[in-house]
Write a structure and sequence with these properties.
single chain; alpha+beta; Phosphorylase Kinase, domain 1; Aminoglycoside 3'-phosphotransferase, Chain: A, domain 2; three-stranded antiparallel β-sheet; 52% helix; globular
């Protein structure tokens, strides 16, 4: 708090109330409200965004080389989350449009993605085979074990889909000479979107340059069970259509089942498995319209 006070004093900002929320501190002052948080080492990204006429982020009012950032406070208006999610994805498509550029393909990058996915598939296949083999030896299954046993085919079907599709994706990218990349917010969550006189994305600490689908993947992992992502994806692609290999990679990543660690109570594990099965079902429904029955 002493450091925060010293920085505020340097800019002749007189605080009269502090509110701590997560990693940030909201400060009420004679000049209005500010958010103070640890210096974002990624701040140069804002210079690039500004050069691309993308100004949808709160402004930092102090110098770059200080330990804390003083950021303008945006009062978020209250309106339905479903509409807010569409506004968020619209802003993300604008971010990607504004910052799209092409670079020479470094095939080592694609090979690394391919090998990481393959290794993950192999690990999950082995892991769930061992789990279900152990469960089958039990005379009486617990509710969580029974729920997993009833749905284990859905997990293996997802892994088979990913095994097949990652080979197809790899064949597609082998032909590419240019790679489309954008500025990724890389931490998309509905709580990182604010709406007032304009739309704003906050929490840019993890931003980087990369393939556009990684923003969609992170958003899906955070909110897949909360919203209809088939509509969200269509809304995004109205402004920023995905290329064939990009969409295929996105579907592979979201179709990969999560690892279930049996380290909770039976009640908690039953709920956790139920959620994971709901996620697999919802992902199937999202992906299947993009494939023919023969493909599936």
């Amino acid at each position: 708090m002493k450091q925060i006070n010293e920085i505020l004093k340097k800019y002749e900002i007189k605080p009269h109330r502090y509110t701590t929320t997560g990693k940030a501190t909201i400060v009420d002052t004679q000049m209005g409200r500010f958010v103070v948080k640890k210096n974002n080492k990624n701040k140069k990204i804002f210079d690039y965004l500004k050069s691309r006429s993308f100004n949808y982020y709160p402004k930092i009012v102090n110098e770059e080389n200080e330990d804390y950032d003083i950021i303008e406070y945006i009062e978020d208006i209250d309106y339905p989350n479903e509409q807010k999610m569409l506004d968020l994805i619209s802003l993300v498509s604008l971010l990607h449009n504004k910052t799209t550029h092409y670079k020479e393909v470094d095939f080592a990058d694609y090979k690394q993605i391919y090998e990481d996915i393959k290794n993950n598939i192999d690990y999950l296949n082995s892991y769930y085979t061992d789990i279900i083999t152990l469960i089958d030896t039990h005379v009486y299954m617990s509710p969580s074990e029974y729920l997993l046993a009833r749905n284990i085919s859905r997990i293996f079907n997802a892994l088979n889909f990913c095994t097949y599709e990652v080979e197809n994706w790899y064949e597609l990218v082998k032909e590419k000479t240019k790679q489309r990349v954008v500025v990724l917010h890389n931490n998309l969550d509905l709580s990182h979107f604010l709406k007032n006189d304009s739309s704003y994305l906050i929490s840019w600490d993890k931003s980087r340059i990369g393939i556009p689908i990684f923003d969609l993947y992170i958003l899906y992992k955070h909110h897949a069970l909360d919203y209809d992502f088939s509509e969200i994806l269509k809304y995004y692609e109205q402004s920023y259509p995905l290329q064939k290999d990009e969409r295929k990679l996105l579907f592979i990543l979201i179709a990969l089942p999560d690892k279930l660690d049996f380290d909770k109570s039976v009640y908690e594990m039953t709920r956790e498995i139920g959620k994971k099965m709901d996620l697999l079902f919802k992902t199937e429904n999202l992906i299947s319209p993009y494939y023919t029955k023969q493909d599936i």
